[in-house]
Amino acid sequence: MGRESESGLPVEPVYGPGQPEGFDPERQLGQPGEYPFTRGVYPGMYTARPWTMRQYAGFATAADSNERYHQLIAAGTTGLSVAFDLPTQMGYDSDAVAARGEVGKVGVAIDSLDDMRILLDGIPLGTVSTSMTINAPAAVLLLLYQLVAEEQGVPADALTGTIQNDILKEYIARGTYIYPPQPSLRLVADTFAYCRQEMPHWNTISISGYHMAEAGATPVQEVAFTLANAKEYVRAAIRSGLAVDEFAPRLSFFFVARTTLLEEVAKFRAARRLWAHIMRNEFSAADPRSQMLRFHTQTAGVQLTAQQPEVNMARVTVQALAAVLGGTQSLHTNSYDEAIALPSEKAARLALRTQQVLAHETDVTLTVDPFAGSYAMESMTDDLADAAADLMARVEDLGGAVAAIEQGFQKAEIERSAYQVTREIDAGERVVVGVNRFTVEGEEPYQPLRVDASIERDQAQRLTALRGRRDSAEFERRIDEMKKAAAGSQNMLYPLREALRAMATVGEVCDALRDVWGVYRPSNVY
Questions:
Q1: In 3-state terms, what secondary structure has residue 471?
Q2: Which of 228, 396, 403, 493 is paired with 304 by a 20 to 30 Å CA distance?
């Protein structure tokens, strides 16, 4: 079918009045794919091809997660998204005391190159785009991915995907930090430089508002704090000697999509406009790709309910539609049972099918930016952009994102917003279907997917065997080289890669960096 409605009427790929006399590119619509990118970062958007359909998955062992990935690929997913367990996210091996009770629970346990080989077994890394939700040890997991691709015969410059690598939001809202801000920012900048040289098609960071939103941030706070963090990363990269147009085209973002569809669409449009303005006017980025805010979206896990979990299907559909109408580049749809436990295979497949229905059974892919020109949408976009800019200015007045983090500013603002929402729900002023209104008595029990507790023991045994068979002298030499690099100024990823090749574990390399850089201790000053 061509670009026609169900009635056979024509649908234009782009609607709009064009650019009137006195056009102000900082405020007005413009065209899709052109500065300030309010209407989308590409001229054709989904009229050319749909968004990338990712499904965030990872649990238990590498073998269990690998099986799920093959199921998702068979179901039609076009990009993988890896969830790691908490020990991996915080740089601990599965046999560490700090890891007890958490191995494989909220993601897959990856301790070494051996685990990564199993996780990616049979996955064509030269053609599949992979996103990895990992922050403090992002460089470690990226290098493990590269080493497995190397063993598959896939060159590093052919790999596509994203590492989250957004450490600043960990200090604000999530808490899986390891090192203090300055060495953490150095590791981020080193990753930018490494990927520019070795993995030019890899997105080196996914600057996340999602986790701040899940902690209670409003849409304005989500945009403002995310872009303030992004500015800090740009400054760190420039301080390390990189030119802005050398790394900025590989920056990407990660936002939530809530059920408040209109404001969410306005949020995405406002964020694109603000970022384009920041990059061109504050950092003198000349490459249009440096000015584009490309982003992944995940539907709002915090809005899912354990009560009447089937209602979550409706929530996720509305949230996914908001992301699509807002112009996302890739999308993960949550499974309806995630408020209870890890998603079942059936629920994960249904979540993917939700995206496929939007892409193939609706008409939202026929035209770019269908809300453009709506009086309500344009006013909401302007208002949200102005409010976010004002909040970013407050962060700048405190000395920038890192200084504001150290003063506890962003965390305090988000906590105030979260408290307000909780108060409104408790008072019945904010309706949550199935929770404080439209409830039912005696809901049917749900049988969730559970992680076997024996995984922790099995992972510990695998680590013992790995340490027994590796070349201990080579391992010690590579760890020493890595520590010397950490104490100096060379790019950390090269000695880190060789340590991992010598079968150093995730926990061992992170411990080595803890020895040199120390660990972050939060303060609540604000």
A1: coil
A2: 228
Query: Taking a C-beta distance cutoff of 8 angstroms, is the pair 262, 379 a contact?
Result: no
175: number of Cβ within 10 Å:
14
Which candidate, 257, 266, 274, places its Cα nearest to that of 210? Answer: 257
59-103 residue pLDDT tens: 999 999 999 999 999 999 888 889 999 999 999 999 999 999 999
Please report, in angstroms and rounded to a whole number, the separation of the first and last CA atoms in the chain: 58
Res 1: pLDDT: 43
Let me know: does 100 contact 146? Beta carbons within 8 Å: no
- CA 3 to chain centroid, in Å, comes to 33
| Neighbouring residues of 2: CB distance < 8 A, sequence distance ≥ 6 | none
Phi-psi region of 104 (alpha: psi -120 to 50; beta: other; left: phi over 0): left
Q: What is the distance between the alpha carbons of residues 92 and 482, in angstroms, rounded to a whole number?
A: 18
Do 343 and 301 contact (CB within 8 A), yes or no? no
User: Tell me: the pLDDT tens digits for 144-165?
Assistant: 999 999 999 999 999 999 999 9
Structure-derived torsion over alpha carbons of residues 456, 518, 138, 492, reported in degrees to the nearest 10: -130
Closest CA to 100 of 90, 111, 87: 87
In sign, the C-alpha dihedral spanning 107, 108, 110, 111 is positive
Comparing CA positions, the residue from 435, 413, 434 lying closest to residue 426 is: 435
Would the pLDDT of 26 be above 80? no
How many residues does this entry show for the chain?
Answer: 526
* Residue 445 pLDDT exceeds 80: no
Q: Measure the CA–CA gap between 30 and 381, rounded to whole angstroms.
A: 14
Tell whether the model's pLDDT for residue 105 goes beyond 70.
yes
Q: Which residue from 68, 14, 66, 17 is spatially nearest to 43, judged by alpha carbons?
A: 14
State the amino acid at position 353 in one-letter form: R
* Both structure tokens of 56: 């965030």
User: How far is 113 from 170, CA to CA, in rounded Å?
Assistant: 25
Reported as a pLDDT band with limits 50, 70 and 90, residue 524 is low
Cα 93 to Cα 424, 464, 505: the distances in Å are: 41, 11, 7
- Phi first, then psi, for residue 449 (nearest 5°) are -75, 130
**Contact call for residues 259 and 209 (beta carbons, < 8 A):** no
Who contacts 438 (Cβ-Cβ below 8 Å, separation ≥6)?
A: none
What's the Rg (C-alpha) of the chain?
Answer: 23
In angstroms, the CA 287 to CA 278 distance is: 13
| Residue 26 to residue 40: CA distance in whole angstroms | 15
* Band of pLDDT at residue 18, cut at 50, 70 and 90: low
| Two tokens, residue 441 | 């008595």
Q: Who's near 277: CB < 8 A, 6+ residues apart?
A: 26, 36
Q: Within a 10 A sphere around the Cβ of 419, how many other Cβ atoms? A: 11
Write down the residue that tokens 């104490």 correspond to. 487
Question: What is d(CA 292, CA 13) in angstroms, rounded to the nearest whole number?
Answer: 21
Task: Identify the bridge partners of residue 53 per DSSP, sorted by sequence position.
Answer: 331
